[in-house]
Amino acid sequence: MEIIMIIVLKPSATPEEIQLFTDKLSSDYDVRINRWDGVHSTVLGLIGDTHTVDIEYIDAQDIVESVKRVQEPYKKANRKFHPENTVVKISDSVSIGDGSLHIMAGPCSVESEEQIVEIAKSVKKSGATLLRGGAFKPRTSPYAFQGLKSEGLDLLKIARKETGLPIVTEIMRTEHIDMFENVDIIQVGARNMQNFDLLRELGRTKKPVLLKRGLSATIEEWLMSAEYIMAGGNDNVILCERGIRTYETYTRNTLDVSAIPIVKKLSHLPVVVDPSHASGKSWLVEPLAMAAVAAGADGLIIEVHNDPPHALSDGAQSLTPEQFDAVSKKIFALKNALNVDT
Amino acid sequence: MEIIMIIVLKPSATPEEIQLFTDKLSSDYDVRINRWDGVHSTVLGLIGDTHTVDIEYIDAQDIVESVKRVQEPYKKANRKFHPENTVVKISDSVSIGDGSLHIMAGPCSVESEEQIVEIAKSVKKSGATLLRGGAFKPRTSPYAFQGLKSEGLDLLKIARKETGLPIVTEIMRTEHIDMFENVDIIQVGARNMQNFDLLRELGRTKKPVLLKRGLSATIEEWLMSAEYIMAGGNDNVILCERGIRTYETYTRNTLDVSAIPIVKKLSHLPVVVDPSHASGKSWLVEPLAMAAVAAGADGLIIEVHNDPPHALSDGAQSLTPEQFDAVSKKIFALKNALNVDT
Amino acid sequence: MEIIMIIVLKPSATPEEIQLFTDKLSSDYDVRINRWDGVHSTVLGLIGDTHTVDIEYIDAQDIVESVKRVQEPYKKANRKFHPENTVVKISDSVSIGDGSLHIMAGPCSVESEEQIVEIAKSVKKSGATLLRGGAFKPRTSPYAFQGLKSEGLDLLKIARKETGLPIVTEIMRTEHIDMFENVDIIQVGARNMQNFDLLRELGRTKKPVLLKRGLSATIEEWLMSAEYIMAGGNDNVILCERGIRTYETYTRNTLDVSAIPIVKKLSHLPVVVDPSHASGKSWLVEPLAMAAVAAGADGLIIEVHNDPPHALSDGAQSLTPEQFDAVSKKIFALKNALNVDT
Amino acid sequence: MEIIMIIVLKPSATPEEIQLFTDKLSSDYDVRINRWDGVHSTVLGLIGDTHTVDIEYIDAQDIVESVKRVQEPYKKANRKFHPENTVVKISDSVSIGDGSLHIMAGPCSVESEEQIVEIAKSVKKSGATLLRGGAFKPRTSPYAFQGLKSEGLDLLKIARKETGLPIVTEIMRTEHIDMFENVDIIQVGARNMQNFDLLRELGRTKKPVLLKRGLSATIEEWLMSAEYIMAGGNDNVILCERGIRTYETYTRNTLDVSAIPIVKKLSHLPVVVDPSHASGKSWLVEPLAMAAVAAGADGLIIEVHNDPPHALSDGAQSLTPEQFDAVSKKIFALKNALNVDT
């Protein structure tokens, strides 16, 4: 991949130092070097397969004032090199990124067979095409409920058998990858978006991965984490915007709705939105879901609980099955209107 | 207005100190005091017209660990005390907040009579019901074009006469209020959201005010600035979400789409959205405008320029009249679909 | 001033479009254009007096993917063009930026003659060399105490007469500049850092200006606001770091201690630090003041109140005179140790 | 541990609903319930061992408007329950938190035996009492150098043998804990601060853990992550402030110097500061290190490389041994001056 780097040298750099530096760059790397001399500054441009040039190496040189890459640092996730949309096939009837809208619905935590099967049947009836549910739960307090773990995975599979809905659930450590073999989409949570060992191992599988954006990850860092998975040969990556951390305290996070069109421009990967975690409040799920679909999201992941006040986690942001049914109707009506429109 | 304050005392507070403090509160203010004694902490609750109690006063006391107000600090802008929506009437045919969708369109800066009249006619044809345009421009560089000033106001009035579109334009200092007498909506920019003297003076008029959210203003601070205007007797306040400052650098600001349903819940004031400034990129205007409408916005304010590459300011985020026409069609189609839906 | 701009063109740009664009740039501006052709991208470099080239104009062109200025956008505030430190002379004995450390101390609000004179005498005894005090107060609530206004200015002058301490106080609107004629340092608050009209008018005076950093202003924006004042011919600008808005809620703001060495590198202007507003908590004033001095601050501005629990504003962050005396001793001991060290 | 929760009920809650809710709370939990009735709102206060009450459960109830815990959610890390400072003993001569200042110095990445031994000897001579060096490197790009891994650990041990300096190095996954058996301080990086499985496993060892603050972690979340480790029985936790993510782009991160006195007030754990990662620029290391020590840090962790321009990672922020020697002298001179002072 051709890369261009722009290097601004310090005004104090002498002609000899500049010569030495450009000679060194030429001999070390397979690049062409362009040079502009202004009155105060000299600017170098490197063109070529600068992929091997560590930008930190350049930045650490004494005569360098600043250095910038012109291109994005990701390749496999980059739409420039892969113009058509990636479609992640989950089952015969579910493909994410093919233009249709998919809703992944279900409880924050799997709590019992009865609970998960009941919710699965209900959300399916309301239009959801995938079942979400947490078996391993990342909790900020060591004293809070941490999920049913492997038993939770078994219960999800029972619910899948009962309803036919593919299942989406979160992995928390590399050693569990085998245990997730039979899961349809493996979710990487926001707190693990830069757990690079986990990403690398998932890259060695062919499993669809739902990669949540980190709490304070830039769009570029998020796509670099997708690149980690794809670099290993696994192209089945679905991005998930779930709100970012800002100074605003009214909502748990701030949904970055702009991220939807931006990642669709920069990357060919599908993007789904999690309005439940983005807001932390059930009454905000509907307007945020509507906004996400209007902005072009390929799917939504929504928390639904048959008894939110008794949910073992995240009750405050869960919809009841009745609420979900109403929201789902509006969402699909909106999607249909948008399709007619285009 | 009844207010409740929760005061947590330091574990080190002695019974005598606590007694002294509660006696003082009782004698100074017309409040009831509730007290809970835990093993480690004592908590006081103040109920009554604690409006007169300065929270900073409490917080400064030696024995106080923390103090929190339970209610919102704004009254006139608060939906609790004014449940029905405020509708701001601009002209016979334009009322903001009445359930219809209004688009304010036009150039960042007014540049010439020809320019503003041409754009006004064009955006009107495409469905805009108000004309926006800057006469006084706040620019981060003292060396950049600062607007045509009073001449710009005159040109806007000519464009209004030609098209019938009410005009929206930004004020930058208190002394100019008289000069803005004949403007239909006076805009307060993000950088002036906490220019309290300006807000107070606008409160003494009856002019509709478009109050942009500050770059790093919380929703509460934004509503407090609305309260400043309303406290003077001017209820014609329209809120405008225009993106907030976050760590993400891909967009100029991050559109906080959640703010739309939130201010509509907390307040009775109408809210419009500025997708042009929120993103700083013209290709993001459409998806962000769609998201804003789907989330419940009462209106949009969009930059349109007949020749963006030669715009004297903000060309990069301006739509051409043709682009605006296409975006406008989609927006109104979406609004219609949402109306059918509900 | 020579400026360099780097323009990256879209991969889709045709040779003809590129030619047209560079011809236009050459004819419109007095610049040299360098061009590099990569496989996927073309990069243009503009060198010359590109000062007149509006970066937004470039960014708005259809064939442009991105554009970056290489140099800082400020000139008069830039150390590159003014290598020696600016020293702002306030009185015969007080010069800010000359290597000595100055403490501006006093109450958030001026409340009475007795109060301000008593505090002034006390802080002077403890080593403060300037008196701070608010006469016009920017308050987030329209219902809170807004300061004694012009009467407050008169009381400050009385305190100055009694103690000889120069006075620092905040201006809130352009029309008040004449009223502040006899003030020693005019403070521009964080919320007015981008009140460009106010900055421009202050640039027409020769008054020392204490320019606080905006709540979410980048260092570059802050220096651009200094540039506004200096562009008018007033070089007496003192920068004041007072904490920035972040996601952390424990403190009111987050003191950006790095800003001290950074503005001293980028600019020749002196910088003082406000640990009281940065934290909002009186017990944090000492450690933050110590950190600021160790990082190279030229001065501190600290809130001191003879009766914090009854202060009309900001009591929670005010030191008592006794606390201030102890903190001041530590600060000057630290400054002395640092002087010995270097 | 006694906990107090404040629950504000919705104005719409009926007396019957309130009764039902308080009855349920009383029967489910061992708590006392206080109730205040205002005109518009009812407030409940829960006192008792509300530790078992999930705040999310309360928040999810229909009649609840908001709920707040009054106390901090961490116990073992809380100074209230452990007033004296924790001192983490690393070796006979190195104890972190005992009032002395310790500098952990060394390269970002271990690159060769020669490199690490040379740097170790050099930093020891300059006053460092611990050796830092990365064997497993978390890199944002899958194509960047990822560290020498277990070989790097071996090289660190050789350097320890040669110099006697205890070693600090980063762990990236749970399965590696055995491999880190012989390391003196195990570092948990910012990106793993909420890798709860890793924290839990480290809690089962007795190894000193250097817990870096996450890029956008609040102080409370950081202390909750310490609590995860301590809940397992490992009290040897050292906190490390390394800059947080803000909107400011001049530095890689923004050093939150206030965090030093704050965690020392809230917790009994020692705190060290990483000025190298906080700024990303070697020339900022000195002023930030000075600020950190003046604000009360127990130690510093500083990147030193014998040949920064050829460092395999983070060269731009590394000091040369000569620069480190000069900075170290200033730091210890400052520490001595502070000791005299107190």
Can you offer a commentary on this structure?
The structure is a homotetramer of 342-residue chains. Chain A is α/β, with parallel strands linked by helices and 342 residues long. Chain A has 2 domains: 67 residues, Alpha-Beta Plaits, CATH 3.30.70; 263 residues, TIM Barrel. Helices cover 32% and strands 19% of the residues of chain A. Chain A has an 8-stranded parallel beta barrel, surrounded by 5 helices. In chain A, helix 3 packs parallel to helix 4, helix 5 packs across helix 6 and helix 9 packs parallel to helix 10. Chain A is elongated and about 75 Å long. The two termini of chain A are 35 Å apart. Chains in contact: A-B, A-C, A-D, B-C, B-D, C-D. Chains A and D meet through helix 2, helix 5 and helix 6 of A and helix 2, helix 5 and helix 6 of D.
Chains forming the largest contact: A-D, 50 and 50 residues
Query: How many structural domains are formed by the residues of chain A?
Result: 2
In one word, what is the shape of chain A? elongated
State the helix count of chain A: 10
Tell me the number of strands of chain A: 14
CATH top level of the largest domain in chain A is Alpha Beta
Mean pLDDT value of chain A: 92
**CATH architecture term of the largest domain in chain A:** Alpha-Beta Barrel
CATH topology of the largest domain in chain A: TIM Barrel
Q: Give a short account of the largest sheet of chain A.
A: 8 strands, parallel, barrel
Question: How much of the residues of chain A is beta strand, in percent?
Answer: 15-25%
For CATH, the homologous superfamily of the largest domain in chain A is named as: Aldolase class I
Classify the secondary structure makeup of chain A into a structural class: alpha/beta
Q: Give the helices and strands of chain A as they follow along the chain.
A: EHEEHEEEEHEHEEHEHEHEHHEH
Our Rg estimate of chain A from Cα atoms comes to 23 Å
